[in-house]
């Protein structure tokens, strides 16, 4: 049979074999990454795949046990003019083609890796973030910067190196570990970029002690300016939006949103009502409800599925952000997009409260290209395929309130450009 | 010390071509000329107070506050330019006058930039009175290269439509005054909508004579372009998301008893401006050029950026 093949056919056959091998390798790798039900499964698979390979090699067309390569096999069988593909082949091929793995691009959570040089506060933080005990972009950023201060204080320069050089690599190791706990948030990424710049800008002939002192102090300033004061300015501006008799819808538990509501109620003495929409598995709204009720704000607590029933009468939707991406879209807790669309459909203003440290120059068009899985170690989460964030299109956003002013979502790139030297 | 409100109103009365923000700037300049402050902080305090009095003394303070804010911004930026007070003040007054004269030139620049928007055989719908729109249409009529007709709404509450129609008629422009309620009736026969602005908000939405919102909405529904003609000194650092966010627009009252006098509406107390959100606006023609609504926030950020 092999002798009858022309040169061209031979080439094609080789190409297909190569493809099959590549596929087999991919399958194996995929199973290992999937890491549960591990070995047995992947063994089976590799057995199957090697079966297929031998099948192809001997150019037989009995591909009843093939999984990934039925397509190429049936094609080659047609080329050889022997038995026609069965309807079962088609069904299998179709099933593979229609199966869209939306979450394929999202990295599954890993185990926290530890190294010798890792500071205990970093390890502690990584664990806290992985279990979502510290949650929220701004809080995580602040906790990280405070931990870095500790790292700076406890760092001893090796005898043969200078502080600024050796500390940069030491810092990178800490960040590696932190990253293994949970992916870095946009704000953390921005803060790290800033800190690295500060470190590399340190003069070579400055003493270790004064370098440390400088870094600790400048980190404190950073926390004050970019997080604490920024929050306060946003609270001041945003609370002016609330009017007597308003009904404010919130989703999740953004710190700056809650502070705004509390400020408007306790300091400005405005009377308004809050509707909290919540969703599993994090149920962050419960935390928010407790905080608001503690100061006496009337709260209605609903699950997100009940939103259409209560949305009439709502005057504003206020939401925090994980990040604002540079095409003006809002990247925030999963479910926000749904609430925002529903609010916008009823001409309810959608206000985003966001510090500029959360501005990202990334362009993002959907929630699948960049996302995170909610770790299974999180309380109440049993599903492995739940994602953290979604993307709200800028056309549903009325305005973004930042510490440098209120602006339409389309002006995010302007802020990134004009304030670059400060950000 | 001069009374800031009187000075402001005096400027407006003397020259009816003057816009409110420019009048406010000139009033503040006049105050600045008279001051003998000991410290720069004291001067800024006095001017800030004057600006606040001015804002609170008139019922519709949006465009006025744009001028005040711009001037104070300019002041705080330039106050430390020179050491001794006299030189500093001279410098400030000089620059302030330059600023005011530039603001006056803005309108003719708008007319120049906006001229291509008027095409032959156009029927244009105009709502409310706007000096920028008047100048543009007059220039277009004088150029003798385009023939166009204008629908003007009555623009009730202020009734400025009729006033504007007379000015345009004098320039030989064919004009038809229509009641506000018949915008829907004429919108299909209209090619484009021109409006002026009291103020341009950060989102690119405009604050303008009441009724602009509904005109813009109808135009959007009929797929007609809406052009806003506004000087860049009317850009305000304000971001209303709904008409109720505007200062001075109190909630309207509902009543049931029928009195003969309650049939006549009390137009005095009626809100004079409304807010047209940016999605209803095709483009803003300003002295800085033709901007998309989102371009306004970019200009504003640049203007307030240090």
UniProtKB/TrEMBL annotation, chain A:
Pfam families with a match to the protein in the record: IF-2B (PF01008)
Entry superkingdom: Eukaryota
Record field: compositional bias (Basic residues): 13-25
Compartment annotation: Cytoplasm, Cytosol
Sequence segments annotated as region (Disordered): 1-90
GO-annotated cellular components: cytosol
Compositionally biased tracts (Low complexity): 26-84
Keywords (A to Z) from UniProt: Cytoplasm, Initiation factor, Protein biosynthesis
GO molecular function, one term: translation initiation factor activity
SUPFAM superfamilies attached to this UniProt entry: NagB/RpiA/CoA transferase-like
InterPro entries: IF-2B-related, IF_2B-like_C, NagB/RpiA_transferase-like
Main location: cytoplasm
Oligomeric form and interacting partners: Component of the translation initiation factor 2B (eIF2B) complex which is a heterodecamer of two sets of five different subunits: alpha, beta, gamma, delta and epsilon. Subunits alpha, beta and delta comprise a regulatory subcomplex and subunits epsilon and gamma comprise a catalytic subcomplex. Within the complex, the hexameric regulatory complex resides at the center, with the two heterodimeric catalytic subcomplexes bound on opposite sides.
Family: Belongs to the eIF-2B alpha/beta/delta subunits family.
Name of this protein: Translation initiation factor eIF2B subunit delta
Source organism of this protein record: Starmerella bacillaris
Taxonomic lineage from the root: Eukaryota, Fungi, Dikarya, Ascomycota, Saccharomycotina
TrEMBL record, chain B:
Protein keywords: Cytoplasm, Initiation factor, Protein biosynthesis
Subunit structure: Component of the translation initiation factor 2B (eIF2B) complex which is a heterodecamer of two sets of five different subunits: alpha, beta, gamma, delta and epsilon. Subunits alpha, beta and delta comprise a regulatory subcomplex and subunits epsilon and gamma comprise a catalytic subcomplex. Within the complex, the hexameric regulatory complex resides at the center, with the two heterodimeric catalytic subcomplexes bound on opposite sides.
Subcellular location field: Cytoplasm, Cytosol
The protein's name: Translation initiation factor eIF2B subunit alpha
Keyword Protein biosynthesis: yes
GO cellular component: cytosol; eukaryotic translation initiation factor 2B complex
Superkingdom of the organism of origin: Eukaryota
Keyword match Magnesium: no
Family statement: Belongs to the eIF-2B alpha/beta/delta subunits family.
InterPro entries: eIF2B_alpha/beta/delta, elF-2B_alpha_N, IF-2B-related, IF_2B-like_C, NagB/RpiA_transferase-like
A Pfam family matched in the record: IF-2B
């Amino acid at each position: 049979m092999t002798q009858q093949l022309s040169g061209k056919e031979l080439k094609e056959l080789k190409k297909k074999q190569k493809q099959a091998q590549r596929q087999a390798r991919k399958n194996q790798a995929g199973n290992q990454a999937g890491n549960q039900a591990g070995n047995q499964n992947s063994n089976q698979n590799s057995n199957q795949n090697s079966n297929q390979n031998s099948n192809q090699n001997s150019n037989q067309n009995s591909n009843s046990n093939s999984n990934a390569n039925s397509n190429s096999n049936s094609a080659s069988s047609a080329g050889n003019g022997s038995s026609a593909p069965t309807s079962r082949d088609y069904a299998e091929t179709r099933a593979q083609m229609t199966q869209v793995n939306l979450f394929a691009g999202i990295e599954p959570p890993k185990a926290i890796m530890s190294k010798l040089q890792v500071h205990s506060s970093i390890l502690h933080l990584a664990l806290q973030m992985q279990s979502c005990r510290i949650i929220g972009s701004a809080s995580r950023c602040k906790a990280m910067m405070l931990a870095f201060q500790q790292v700076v204080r406890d760092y001893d320069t090796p005898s043969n190196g200078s502080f600024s050089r050796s500390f940069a690599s030491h810092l990178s190791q800490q960040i590696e570990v932190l990253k293994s706990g949970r992916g870095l948030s946009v704000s953390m990424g921005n803060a790290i970029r800033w800190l690295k710049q500060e470190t590399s800008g340190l003069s070579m002939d400055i003493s270790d002690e004064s370098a440390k002192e400088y870094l600790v102090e400048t980190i404190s300033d950073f926390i004050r300016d970019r997080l604490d004061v920024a929050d306060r300015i946003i609270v001041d501006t945003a609370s002016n939006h609330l009017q007597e008799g308003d009904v404010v819808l919130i989703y999740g538990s953004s710190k700056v949103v809650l502070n705004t509501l509390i400020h408007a109620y306790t300091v400005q003495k405005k009377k308004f009502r809050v509707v909290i929409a919540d969703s599993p598995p994090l149920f962050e709204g419960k935390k928010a409800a407790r905080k608001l009720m503690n100061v006496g704000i009337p709260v209605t607590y609903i699950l997100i599925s009940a939103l259409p029933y209560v949305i009439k009468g709502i005057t504003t939707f206020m939401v925090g952000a994980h990040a604002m991406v540079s095409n003006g879209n809002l990247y925030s807790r999963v479910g926000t997009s749904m609430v925002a669309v529903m609010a916008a459909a009823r001409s309810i203003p959608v206000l985003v409260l966001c510090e500029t440290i959360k501005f990202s120059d990334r362009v993002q068009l959907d929630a699948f290209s960049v996302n995170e899985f909610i770790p299974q170690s999180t309380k109440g989460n049993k599903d492995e395929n739940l994602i953290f964030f979604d993307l709200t299109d800028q056309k549903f956003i009325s305005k973004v309130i930042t510490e440098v002013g209120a602006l339409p979502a389309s002006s995010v790139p302007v802020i990134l450009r004009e304030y670059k030297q400060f950000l | 010390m001069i009374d800031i409100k009187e000075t402001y109103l005096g400027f407006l009365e003397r020259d009816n071509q003057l816009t409110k923000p420019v009048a406010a700037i000139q009033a503040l300049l006049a105050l600045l000329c008279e001051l003998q402050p000991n410290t720069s902080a004291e001067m800024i305090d006095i001017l800030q107070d004057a600006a606040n009095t001015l804002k609170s003394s008139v019922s519709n303070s949006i465009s006025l506050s744009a001028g005040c804010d711009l001037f104070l911004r300019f002041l705080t930026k330039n106050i430390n330019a020179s050491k001794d007070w006299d030189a500093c003040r001279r410098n400030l007054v000089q620059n302030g006058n330059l600023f005011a004269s530039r603001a006056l030139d803005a309108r003719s620049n708008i007319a120049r930039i906006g001229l291509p928007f008027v095409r032959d055989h156009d029927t244009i719908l105009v709502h409310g009175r706007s000096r920028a729109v008047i100048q543009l249409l007059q220039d277009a009529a004088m150029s003798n290269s385009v023939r166009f007709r204008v629908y003007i709404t009555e623009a009730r509450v202020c009734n400025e439509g009729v006033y504007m129609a007379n000015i345009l008629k004098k320039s030989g422009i064919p004009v038809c005054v229509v009641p506000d309620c018949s915008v829907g009736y004429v919108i299909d026969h209209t090619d484009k909508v021109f409006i002026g602005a009291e103020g341009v908000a950060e989102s690119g939405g405009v604050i303008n004579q009441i009724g602009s919102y509904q005109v813009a909405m109808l135009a959007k529904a009929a797929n007609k372009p809406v052009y806003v003609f506004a000087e860049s000194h009317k850009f305000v650092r304000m971001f209303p998301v709904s008409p109720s966010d505007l200062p001075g627009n109190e909630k309207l009252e509902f009543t049931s008893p029928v009195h003969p006098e309650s049939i006549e509406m009390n137009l005095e107390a009626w809100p004079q401006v409304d807010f047209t959100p940016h999605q209803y606006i095709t483009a803003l023609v300003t002295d800085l050029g033709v901007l998309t609504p989102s371009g306004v926030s970019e200009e504003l950020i640049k203007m307030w950026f240090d």
